Amino acid sequence: MSRIRTLYVATSNAGKVREMAPLARPLLEALRAADARLVARAAREAEETGETFAANAWIKAEALASELRAEGEADYAVLADDSGLSVEALGGRPGVHSARYAGPNASAEAHVQKLLAELGERDERSARFVCHLALLLADGLRFEASGECEGAISKSRHGDGGFGYDPVFRLVDGRTMAEIPAEEKNLVSHRGRAFAALAKKVR
User: Fold this and answer.
1) Gap between the Cα atoms of 48 and 82, Å rounded
2) What digits encode the pLDDT tens for the residues 39-55?
């Protein structure tokens, strides 16, 4: 395994980067790169055309790695995340289109409002968050892992924390993702579980 000085996270989502920072520490330790910089950088050309979270994660990771190689970068790793919400009553939607559900440039609030409108007053509201991580090292080594979190969609927003669909994703204990402390969220969330699984794979 080559030396890693920089871990590039293939995203421009500020909320996701904030959430990933503490989650990435065990991964960097497993990579023997605890002092590596964490840099957010989305690939300039990475169309998320995959039909699965895994496919889209690899599209983003490979696109950014290609750009870095063309720029002469070395001693790096690229980490890409593709994640979203799968709602049972909607046949798994919004799924891989979670970030574009209400349109490519729509706000997080617009996505939430579309989701609540589509579900309406129906009783069946079970859902799960899914995250797939793709890790690509400069020397060509590849690792991947997934994580899920089961819950249900509430009928209205609750809580001020988190981002995206967090205010309407209700955990089994009744609280939404936006109502729990960040430290607790990192333990139970789909992304936290994916990071934990990935760190075990690279040890």
Assistant:
1) 9
2) 899 998 888 889 999 99
